[in-house]
Amino acid sequence: MGCEDSPGSGVLDFQKLGELNPLDLGRLTVLDRGQKWCGVVLETTFGKDVVRRLGEIAENLGIVIRFIQVSMVRAREPFAKAVAFLDFSNAIVTPEEALELVSKQEFVKKARIIYPSGTGVLSDDYFFPLVLGKERIVVFRRRTYESLFKGIRERFGTAGEVMLYYVGFNIGYQTYSDYADTVGSEKPEAILELAKTFLRTMGWGIVDIVEMNLDKGMAQIRVYESFECEIGRGSEATYGHFSRGLVAGFFTRLFDREVKVVETRCIAKGDPCCEFTIT
Q1: What are 103-129's pLDDT values in tens digits?
Q2: Residue 4 placed within a domain
Q3: What's the CA gap between 233 and 216, in Å, rounded?
């Protein structure tokens, strides 16, 4: 069965249409000469009218909101955090005057201007660190993780590929417990669904479960746009050793027994997806 024949989650129709929609995380931009942008960071009470009222203030002052990002607000949290990049090219006020007006709003707890650097870089220099839930996260650009993965292979050869496998295995084995704690359930289906969601949300890849049999301890999964295998395009062999280890560690816990994982297809060698068989 080829990648295009999956009866699974509908991922493949999405892929056939070529409708990947990248999301720029923002919080940093390099301004062109003459652009009059500033940033603002806000901590506000959370309510249904807050965004609308801030938008009205910007519109009335001739300010264009070019980017806005709001931190995830959880139940019973009274405040929301946000960062926005604002275009003052046609504004009738200065950034300082706009800040003074915004700070007087009863729903604003704290507000601060972010000015571009002397080299024209506008970035969020206020909020740190990044977190997902209560856990710190970091973001790697492609150039960084490509250097990491390729560097291990180039320096250590096949031993490096084995190293990547076992690093992936340990991560997959541990994250199973993390996902179980998050969903508050030991049901494999619930844990697997959260894993799929996490991998897609964090940009690791889009996972499609083609087949799974808990009693027999076997499964077949496909990963589209694997971040690891994407950097290996042109390879004559399958490339996803870290990913294979990740799958092995996760399914060792899911099936509660030792598993073997084989990557049968890989985008690095020209296949439309990466495919893993777990037995």
Answers
A1: 999 999 999 999 999 999 999 999 999
A2: no
A3: 34
